[in-house]
Design goal:
Length: 792
């Protein structure tokens, strides 16, 4: 019999592998479902790819790959009934009710498609050549570490090493002091992704990211000019440390002296830590937040079934689970992923653990590993901001929805920004895409202001006399005050007026050029104190169940308004008289596209030698400037022709069809970044573009959205303007259906829960527990989700 079984295995021996260093072995969960060895059908581990599959999914993998040999793992759970068994060599666990259970594992080989089974103990009876190889492979699989162990060791806080510059870093005595807020890049208008150079205190922007966020690379450019090696990301400074990057070592690093280096520029981390402990010990509302938001003390009724399933907390993963619970209560997300589940599974790649559309609906651990891959924050085990994760997830949904329904369309809307020169009164209207509405918290508008003033006086008096602080008072802010603060004009720092050809005072107002199907409202509760201590505003806001934003509809250019001239600020020539270093390879790449050599050298210089792509975009942006030589092309403008072959090649190398990339480049004036975003936001245009000739001489559309009257009762769509992002415009009347709440002193600690209204009932989702809500704390939420009311 053993010989017969050995003969069955012989044809498959070349496909049986032994896991090597770097191979991930999924022996505890299915790549397509929640199945595990404890499931009724057990788990099948492929002896070639080491992927795990439940009983109903293993056949699909066999048909797709032809891999026939699997290790079937089955764990039997039995209750311990005698004291003697407590001393057995079986693995024991204690369940949450205090009962004792034993786990007994069973393993065998299964050969598909005929399901021949070989129990592992019987492998030794097989012919020596077969048994030795198979035994080594099986032992290696059974003893393999968690497939997430490598990722966990690669996470932000574990892989990074101490910088070689940390101990010997020289800091300039230049008097620079960094404020706790209001940062802006010293070289451009960027106000996010800002890095503080630890040598001279320069605040500069980071590199440009795929999703359009990031910056213009001025921090790196500064290093190339100065060789000042270390920089810290400003919005990551906490009492526990900060994110530090070494330009010289080209990686994230540790700086053991970070507190001293930051103190040099006025950022006192030790003071932050003392204040942090003071907050933990004395601010009592944090305790009541936990009780009120989780509805502690109330007898909540658990609910179960489809739509009422909790998500296990993987240690500080509640920001992920609450966001996913809310998203999957939206029909568009259900339809895109749950409704298409069979199709997604059938068309998944050979390694479904790396496929976003497969993982978005199953095991939270496998999903978290995928969506956080390469992200310095989400790949760590630290608590994160649910707002930032939502935007990160929307970006991933956009990138993985090409050619199919994009459920994140329901959040997308256009914002009209009106900027006015205070001196000439001339205006400029532009539009940008956004996915949520951020509401400021005007503490000065608190309805219990007198009570707050009295509390602050008592608190200071108690602190001076070293007495216990008084009972804290929570500020009560009217929602209408938050909405009013959102609509107020704001000053534009360093505004350059094209009418005056000089810097001037400017003000900006924002209105909705379109309203989305689902409006997400974030309350801006998190801020920095004057001493750089991250803090959370302790406020209660009377958030309404019904929200009418129609009065905030944008109107576009009005009668009597005069537009600012469409001119760009002049180029500021650096004072440094040294001959500039120019990347000649980038110059030649641009020259091959037909641009004059002088223009190519200018573009490479002014973009800080950051590559041909950045320099190309600079040329496009400065085409009309009189001192830029005209390109030597057959026509008068590079924009009237076929998009540059270099740009087409860059996009097609990413896997996009040639006709689709040409259409995207034409629709975005040959801007690579905007073209890439256009491709992801216009998957439906791929089929339409097949009918177009690759050499069509059509004038490209403008993607600036400038000076248009956006007031329309119909939805904007690619059919109306191929260069516009898809938005689902409609009335601005909404009903609240979910909110996410945060408990704790900052986004880097604490806990998240969410409340969702289903079938007329409010429910609370707290990790794996789902219950009917008795008192939904709508006034203490962090992010609120509204759905559009159907037209009456």
């Amino acid at each position: 019999m053993a010989t017969d079984l050995g003969e069955l295995l012989v044809p498959y021996m070349p496909t049986i592998r032994v896991p090597r260093t770097g191979d991930r072995v999924f022996k505890s969960e299915c790549a397509f479902s929640y199945d595990s060895p404890e499931s009724e059908g057990g788990l099948y581990v492929c002896l070639n790819s080491f992927l795990g599959f439940g009983r109903e999914h293993v056949e699909r993998h066999y048909r797709k790959t032809g891999q026939s040999v699997y290790m079937h793992l089955k764990r039997h759970v039995k209750e311990v009934r005698s004291v003697a068994k407590l001393f057995s060599n079986l693995e024991l666990n204690r369940d949450f009710n205090g009962g004792d259970y034993e786990y007994e594992d069973e393993a065998k080989l299964v050969i598909f498609p005929d399901h021949f089974e070989i129990p592992l103990p019987n492998i030794e009876e097989l012919p020596a050549l077969v048994s030795e190889s198979v035994t080594i492979a099986c032992d290696a699989i059974l003893n393999a570490p968690s497939p997430y162990k490598k990722q966990e060791s690669d996470s932000w806080e574990e892989e990074i090493q101490v910088s070689k510059h940390a101990r010997s870093l020289t800091q300039q005595e230049n008097g620079v002091r960094i404020p706790p807020s209001g940062w802006k890049c010293a070289k451009c208008e960027m106000r996010e992704n800002l890095w503080l150079n630890l040598t001279d205190g320069s605040v500069l922007c980071g590199k440009w990211f795929f999703d359009g966020s990031g910056g213009n690379g001025h921090a790196l450019e500064h290093y190339k000019k100065t060789n000042f090696p270390l920089a810290v990301k400003l919005d990551t400074v906490t009492p526990d440390g900060a994110d530090v990057y070494s330009f010289d070592e080209e990686e994230a690093v540790l700086d053991p002296h970070i507190s001293e280096h930051l103190l040099h520029f006025g950022i006192d981390m030790l003071q932050m830590q003392r204040n942090g402990h003071h907050t933990d010990n004395h601010v009592q509302p944090r305790v009541s937040d936990w009780e009120v938001i989780q509805e502690a003390g109330l007898k909540l009724k658990p609910v179960y079934g489809s739509g009422y399933t909790g998500i296990k907390n993987l240690a500080n993963s509640c920001y992920l689970s609450t966001t996913m619970q809310v998203l999957f209560s939206i029909p568009e997300f259900q339809r895109a992923y749950v409704g298409n589940l069979q199709r997604i599974f059938d068309y998944s790649p050979l390694d479904p653990t790396q496929d976003f559309n497969t993982q978005i609906g199953i095991s939270p651990k496998m999903f978290k590993a995928l969506v956080s891959k390469g992200h310095p924050e989400f790949s760590s085990n630290r608590q994160q901001d649910a707002h930032e994760f939502l935007l990160h997830l929307i970006n991933l949904v956009e990138r993985n929805s090409s050619g199919s329904e994009n459920p994140s369309d329901v959040f997308r809307f256009l914002v009209e920004e009106r900027v006015q020169c205070c001196q000439t009164q001339k205006v400029r209207y532009t539009q940008r895409v956004d996915y949520l509405m951020q509401l400021p918290v005007p503490l000065e508008a608190a309805s219990n202001r007198e009570e707050l003033i009295a509390y602050e006086s008592k608190r200071k008096e108690a602190e001076e006399n070293m007495r216990p602080p008084p009972e804290p008072v929570r500020a009560r802010i009217p929602f209408t005050a938050c909405l009013q603060a959102f609509t107020e004009p704001e000053n534009v720092p360093d505004f350059w007026s094209s009418a005056l050809q000089a810097k001037s005072a400017g003000v900006k107002t924002s209105r909705f050029a379109s309203f989305p199907e689902y409006m997400v409202v974030q309350i801006k509760k998190f801020t920095f104190g004057v001493d750089w201590v991250p803090k959370k505003l302790d406020v209660s806001i009377d958030v309404p169940d019904f929200l009418d934003l129609n009065r905030l509809r944008a109107t576009g250019l009005q009668a009597g308004e005069e537009e600012l001239p469409d001119l760009t600020p002049p180029i500021v020539i650096p004072e440094d008289t040294r001959a500039p270093e120019i990347d000649e390879s980038s110059v030649m790449q641009l020259a091959e596209m037909g641009f004059p050599l002088e223009a190519c050298r200018k573009a490479v210089y002014y973009t800080g030698n950051m590559g041909a792509e950045m320099a190309f975009n600079w040329i496009i942006a400065h085409m009309e400037e009189p001192d830029l030589p005209s390109p030597s092309l057959p026509t008068t403008s590079a924009l009237d022709n076929q998009p540059p072959e270099e740009s087409i090649s860059i996009l097609t190398s990413m896997g996009f069809p040639r006709h689709h990339t040409i259409q995207a480049l034409k629709a975005t004036n040959n801007n690579l970044e905007r073209a890439l975003d256009w491709i992801f936001t216009h998957p439906d245009c791929e089929e339409e573009s097949e009918a177009m000739s690759d050499t069509a001489d059509t004038e490209p559309n403008d993607n600036s959205f400038s000076n248009g009257n956006a007031h329309s009762d119909s939805s904007l769509s690619p059919d109306q303007d191929l260069s516009s992002p898809r938005v689902r415009d409609g009335p601005g009347r909404y009903e609240l259906f979910a909110f996410i709440s945060h408990m704790g002193a900052s986004t880097m600690s604490g806990h998240y829960v969410c409340h969702i209204k289903k079938e007329g009932r409010w429910l609370i989702y707290n990790d794996h527990k789902v219950c009917l809500s008795e008192r939904p704390p709508k006034d203490l939420g962090y992010m609120y989700f509204y759905r559009r009311l159907s037209s009456c």
